[in-house]
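Appendix B, example 12.
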Amino acid sequence: MVHFRLLLLTGIPYAIVAMTLLLISLPLPLLSSEFEIPEIYAGFLGGSVFIGMFLGATFFGVLADRIGRKRSLVLALILLGLSTLICSVTPSWETFILMRVLTGLGIGGSIPVFFVYLAEFTGLEDRGKTLVLLDSFWAYGWIIASFLGFMVIPAYGWRSYFLVSSVIIFLTAIPLHFLLRETPLYRKRGRRVKIIESIKLLWSKTLRRATASTWIMWFSMVFGYYSFFLWIIGYMRRMGFNLPEAYALNLLTSFAQIPGYFSAAYLIDKVGRKPTLVSYALLTALSVFGFSSATSPIGVTTWLSLVCFFCLGAWGVVMCYTSEPYPTSVRGTGYGFASGFGRIAGIIGPTIIGFLLQSLELSGTLSVVSFAFIILAVDMAILGLETKGKELE
């Protein structure tokens, strides 16, 4: 049975984390204009958060195995709120980038702990569905970010956008300290392996295949997802949409993420992790290609909706799968390092897109994004382990 209360207690703050990460994509053109940043460097403005996410995922993943899942999660969310608040008053793009790096520490640190935490509370029959449903709250975070961007940015500017978001983060994070309890598995089996030993265990004979598959999985998924969605407003501007039209279309198509998650939640415990992820990754690659070739508003809307559907369904499987192949003593470390390695792609991807847009047509630029999702499918097909029906160790 799905633990509905725990799903809400983790899902709502997880949605706010998603909102915080996606804050940069909507006002990116305005930030670039205000700070007079050339488009070729604007990708780094969007990708700077992933420097922090890399550090945060690895640090908080290890920390979750040392001080517990609950305390690590609350600390990461408080850091997230403080850095977002400072973003709203930053005087320069250099300071803004620094604050987004700190924001990344909180985002990257919280994401692995959310899934490790809920996985250790969930029974065998519902684990896949429950974890994908947790990831479905990412779509709600995207919708919240899109709605706030549509309502706040045109009328009040991007600084108010970050200020309102920081208030929402604090109102969500602080109650978790009182409402969450530590997981039974961590209380029973956690904190038994020293930090250096836990890192070495990830590449031991029994875990090296799982580690290799999850690291490649996260790198290709993060590269494809953020290279596409952090530049989505810029892509639509290139297609001829004005800024209000791009924001409105982005909000409209973001609703397609929700059935994408629910379809993956249904399939993941029916047919398994491997076939679900392989098929959704390949269909995402096809949809990105279709989007890049679209020549009408209806075509753009249709293909963008399909990208949202299949890409976010694939994300749900990745989030679920990464928590499953590792034993409790190193689950936080394993998840954190896989996530952290993926965040390197979050730095590289948007920056590469910024360069490619200077020299290639949109279809050529987006072919790189499609290729990332093809790599994801190949990785899961060859190296991935089927964890359907297996108890957590």
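The radius of gyration is 19 Å. The chain has 19 helices and no strands.
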